[in-house]
Amino acid sequence: MKGMLRFIRGYEKESVIAPLFKMLEALFDLFVPLVMADIINTGIAGGDVGYILARCGLLVALGVIGLACSITAQYFAARASVGYSTALRHALFAHIQTLDFSAMDTLGVSTLITRMTSDINQVQSGLNMALRLFLRSPFIVFGSMVMAFTINFRAALIFVVAIPLLSVVVFGVMVWTRPLYRQVQQRLDKVLGVTRENLSGVRVVRAFSKEQSEVDRFEDANALLTRLQLHVGGISALMNPLTYVLINLAIVALLYVGAAEVNAGLLLDGDVVALVSYMSQILVELVKMANTIVLTTKALACAGRVQAVLNTTPGMTFPAALAGEQAAPADAPAVRFDHVSLRYAGAGGESLSDISFTALRGQTIGVIGGTGSGKSSLVNLIPRFYDATSGTVVLMGRPVAGWPREQLRGMVGTVMQKAQLFGGTIRSNLLWGCPGATDDQLWAALETAQAADFVRAKPLGLDEPVEQGGRNLSGGQKQRLTIARALVKDPPILILDDSASALDFATDAALRKALRALPGSRTVFIVSQRAASLMHADQILVLDDGRLVGQGTHTQLMQSCEVYKEIYESQFKKGGEQ
Predict the structure, then answer these.
(1) What DSSP string describes 101-139?
(2) Which of 35, 299, 359, 465 is in Cβ range 3.0-4.6 Å of 335 for a Cys bridge?
(3) Are residues 275 and 423 in the same domain?
(4) C-alpha to C-alpha distance for 512 and 516, rounded to whole angstroms
(5) pTM of the entire structure?
(6) Buried/exposed code over 215-226 (b: 16+ C-beta within 10 A; e: otherwise)
(7) How far apart are CA 224 and CA 184, in angstroms?
């Protein structure tokens, strides 16, 4: 948890001023019972109205000064807590961006969203409360005890007994509930995961009429969260009645001892009122402290969960600069796999086994195979989204592990299997590939991706708004725009991971023809389950259950690879008619 304190840097002044002003406010509060005692003992007992009014004016002044101190403390506490949470959220988001795909798969998206939102909000609230009350409340409690000793020694001994008993209750509940609040946040992760999955797949849910089963699944997860929250809430709820019982017993004892002291002439009536006021102040402050501890306990549990993500180290590292020769050999192949295998974290078996092939510059490489055969896994190794478990992936004559991250990703343009667009405009999405691209370059990429016609048909053209996730576009339009985005980047290696699945055959054929007509020696990887999309590739890789079972041209594979032949014949009638 010490590592979490570094995010307060820049707000040290506010973190000191806030509790100091709260303690100053508490100091003025401690004087109030003494002034009240003075009014009773001198003003009321002597019937001196002027004295009473003067002391009442002093009470008003103490109240105004205390209010000013309280507002000042709240202002600086808010600045410190909001600044802290802002720095923490920025650091967490930046750290998540450094994590590789394996770490993201392990942590889970719903967990990371909870850490970024709910957990950090809890940390912010806990820090705000801690800065304002964690010093003020103990100061009032022990200050009241000290002030009681200045009034009467015997009566003050009741404070000495009551305060430790109250502390045992307060801190005992805190120790008891802290691990339970951590479990509450974990259950919240599960509820968020179910909610996110249900909302992202709402069309599938409705298509299969599974609304009720999804409601039941959500209710089951939410019921577990509710039961645990009720359990923790019940434990936390014990704090207030227990503290009230102890305080009221202390007040009864205080009145009993005070009455005896008054009868003996050792204590005045106003002093008894002051002692009761101090005990009441202790009650109020301990209730505040109890609530502060509950909130701080939640905040500490949440801070631990955020720290766990920050402690998650990326599974792969990138060199800061190229070692040795800066330029790759001109005759080096674009991509070479040398006995490459891949096993995902937590997987029972290998997703890829002993894959070896070479892709020359300017070639079009097709990757085909059944569902789950490892097609996406293979192309994800090229930009190093994952590290091979064994073997070597070589890019432009250099192992991918030897390329700096920016240079590696700059050489590879990837169009993911699932089309993903961001809120903004068509132009802003295309400029992800190259921020400095001109309109001519954008339109050229759209022409190649077969997207220019529907973009021109939009009222605002390139400046047409795109909703989050591209909700206002069809599946085919989204796929074509993501292809155009990769083409704007103009990479030497282009990967199309089943990115034309939503396109009709005519558009798919036009896209492949346009890609072949592009100038330069670009190496293109096309992942598809359509044999027609790959028939004209320079080299076709056939995968089956993670193994490379065929490699060659369409004609060669039709003669030598049964898996490819079965795929082709399942899509084309025997005799070549479609």
Answers:
(1) HHHHHHH-HHHHHHIIIIIHHHHHHHHHHHHHHTTHHHH
(2) 359
(3) no
(4) 6
(5) 0.72
(6) eeeeeebbeebe
(7) 9
